[in-house]
Design a protein that fits this description.
The complex is a heterodimer of chains A (about 325) and B (about 325). Chain A is an alpha/beta fold and about 325 residues long. Chain A has 2 domains: about 180 residues, Rossmann fold, CATH 3.40.50; about 130 residues, Rossmann fold, CATH 3.40.50. Chain A has 13 helices and 14 strands. With about 325 residues, chain B is an alpha/beta fold. Classes of the chains: A alpha/beta (about 325), B alpha/beta (about 325).
Amino acid sequence: MARTRFIQAINDAIREEMERDEKVFVFGEDVEASIFGDTAGLAERFGKRRVRNTPISENTLTGMTVGAAACGYRPVLHIMFANFLFTGMDGVANQLAKARLMSGGQIELPATIIASYGGGRANAAQHSDTPYSAFMNLGGVHLVVPSNPADAKGLLKSAIRSNDPVLFFEPGGRGGEMGDVPDEEYLTPIGKAAVVRQGGDLTLISMGSTMRMTIQAADQLAEQGLECEVVDVRTLAPLDEETICAAAERTGRVVIVDESRERASAASHIAAVVAEKSFGHMKAPIRRVTARNAGLPLAPASEQYLLPNVDKIVAAAVEISENGRLPA
Amino acid sequence: MSKNLSPDVSECLELLKTMYVIRYAEEQLGDDFAAGKLPGGVHLSIGQEAVSAGICAHLTDRDKVSSTHRGHGHFLAKGGEPKHLIAEIYGKEEGCCRGMGGSLHVADYSKGIIGANGIVGAGIPVATGAALANHLDDDGSMTVVFFGDGASNQGVLQESMNFAALWKLPLLYVCENNQFGQFSPTATVTAGVISDRAKAFDIPVEVVDGNDVRAVWQTMAGAADHIRSGKGPVFIEAHTYRIRNHFEREHLVIKTPYRTEEEVEKMRRERDPIEMLQEWLKDENLADEATCQAIDKDAKTLVDEAVAFGDAGTPPPLDVGEKYQFVGTSS
């Protein structure tokens, strides 16, 4: 194990996969300058043929992944802020998510798109969205949302090796966070959630950027006598319903924490799955803690007001706990 | 860039056959639609066959073609099998895309046909990615992107031309200017000369009579040479004319005509690319009536066989949508 920063784990994953397979190439706006650091140094290591700075042309960039992937390459597109995926939506929604189906399975589409998402840093509305739930509805792309450096590296390596398209959502502004990363080669499987904490009173389910506050909420609740089981979803599509429902059933009390907006959020879908499959085990209504239904404003306090936080998670958990309040 | 090279007699007869196959296949599909036989709609390229035939005559299976909603001609000219086209449009499992795509999405990747596109202009970014793959392969292969005058107003064309010129991608832009974007005459929705837009990116431009298959063939000979030698993209604007409606159901939804029947009839009579080639071959004493008739008959037979193949096909199983969505494997 080595203590590694989040952004370095992503960088290591790309580097290792480029070394492993010469068909992998990276392209995107300013991947050489790399404002986040996740593609820093790759051009020096692999050259400009395989690390390609591009014009600011998102709609063409997303569409290019389809042509390059269908013609034998493994493109890794860095789209920078996840909001820019909306600019490039045709390439993702009408092309990448559908080209294999429309061809009757003639082709493989081993494309990866890396996007940094999430608010809380006063980047204002167009650089702060958590848009993964919109992509959950496309059907034809896998979605991974790591919450820590080890999973970020393992999931990105799996994404690049996958013969299907994968969107990799990295929590924005968390690049400096440290975590233990195995020294040896490993892959984190796409489609597998992880139970990261045991506890018999409540089940907290989260992913990506809201995982840290969920763990902090579990710590606070434990101090006050409520033990939480905590699930890190890790992959939103395909969703590991088995692990999620088993964890939900063990306590019968479920809070789902998600940074996307409440309406049709990832939490909404997970809540529906738990309600359909585990209803008989539920002892209380399923609760969602999400962003409120508005764009994120610049003014920091106004922005924070809309986002999930530890207090909101603790309050929701207490509300559905056995006594509706903390143990005496 | 122009090569002083014309198609020889045998090449001309091949072009004639390609155009006849496209014509018969599309006439069949028009009749099938009118008879209520097709599960979906079709957009026919009758009158525009010379562009597909003249361009694709210079391509091999390694080269890629990205196509449009009006893409049957591109598919057939690039080597797609008529029977796989017809069966696909009939929604049969024996179709090129196993009945999953239909007319709007005909593709045969084994022949370098990387898909027709139902979104106007969306084939352009896909082709740019394919051309980047050609560029990385560095083996002299190239990509052709067909699009219409309508698609030239999509921003992705400008984006793509910037990429291709900047990176010297082996990409040929073929704008089939058939005078109408859906139900609007091109001039009413398009400023300036379309091919002039490529000049802003220093991309070499050729404007050609898209109904003269020998002219298209000759223009393409020079363009392909330029592109394969690593000099970067070329833009061809081929002027042609859409004889049929935008789509076959048009008469049911468009009540105000946007062109006259006389205009269409005049183009059909005077500018039919098949007739133009046959007349030239006969005038020059390069082929007689019997030779042309034999090619016509061969093409008709091929399409008739394709229809029989499509009729005999089977509907795909109900649950294939999810099956074809993902491969489910890793490298």
